[in-house]
Amino acid sequence: DTEKLQSSAQTAQTEQTSAQTEQSSTQQTSDSESTADASAGKYGSFETTDLAGNVVTADVFADHKLTMINVWATYCSPCLQEMPELGELSKEYKDKGVQIIGIPIDTLEQDGTWSQSQVANAASLASQTGADYLHILPSQDLIQAGLSDIYAVPTTFFVDSSGNVTGDTYMGSKSKKEWEKIIDQTLENMK
Q1: What is the distance between the alpha carbons of residues 126 and 179, in angstroms, rounded to a whole number?
Q2: Residue 57 · residue 41 · CB < 8 Å
Q3: Beta partners for residue 104, in sequence order
Q4: Do residues 56 and 157 lie in contact, with contact meaning Cβ atoms separated by under 8 Å?
Q5: What does the pLDDT look like over 110-166, one tens digit per residue?
Q6: Residue 190 has pLDDT above 60, yes or no
Q7: Mind listing the pLDDT tens digit for each residue in 15-49?
Q8: What integer pLDDT is reported at residue 38 of this predicted model?
Q9: What confidence tier does 63 reach under pLDDT thresholds 50, 70, 90?
Q10: Is the CB of residue 56 less than 8 Å from the CB of residue 136?
């Protein structure tokens, strides 16, 4: 199964390298106003869809004390390797007021639309890895809120019930035990 995931990831990586480079260039030239908004950590107002096309707004945070947002890409092997354990954590922390949301960043085209083939690929990979938590698409308002500052995947950060960034931002994949410590510490610091 891991070989299939890595093969799928490598195929997608080949197709997305130039698009990612162009997107990265666009992200680096974002205006200072959106950068200021990003540093304030405001994800409290957005509208997007999930991988199935259902509308999702910032209200998704309201019923959870803490939301872990994992920004990933279909070509990223470390992203795919940590997703099964993120799926487990999603179930284990549900009763503690914590949810996990994934954002497959490489579903966004240069013109701001979503690539339907990449959305389908992301949905397939999420299913294959057991990452059965909510995955939302990167909308323009999410990009402006702070996703434009992300230059490596996976990148993970946390928001409170109002969409304010809380705690640290983490680049790179982590083990389940490492994420447990980070989540527990972030929850403790919110008290």
Answers
A1: 19
A2: no
A3: 72
A4: no
A5: 898 999 999 999 999 999 999 999 999 999 999 999 999 999 999 999 999 999 999
A6: yes
A7: 333 333 333 333 332 333 333 333 335 898 999 99
A8: 39
A9: very high
A10: yes
How far is the C-alpha of 98 from the C-alpha of 158, rounded, in Å?
10
Site of tokens 């304010």: 164
Amino acid letter, 25? S
Spatial distance between the Cα atoms of 177 and 161, rounded to a whole number of angstroms: 24
Closest CA to 91 of 146, 139, 137, 131: 131
Q: What is the 3 state secondary structure string of the chain?
A: CHHHHHHHHHHHHHHHHHHHHHHHHHHHCCCHHHHHHHHHCECCCCEEEECCCCEEEHHHHCCCCEEEEEEECCCCHHHHHHHHHHHHHHHHHHHHCEEEEEEEHHHECCCCCECHHHHHHHHHHHHHHCCCCEEECCCHHHHHHCHHHCCCCCEEEEECCCCEEEEEEEECCCCHHHHHHHHHHHHHHCC
pTM: 0.79
pLDDT of residue 3: 46
Token duo for residue 36: 């200021």
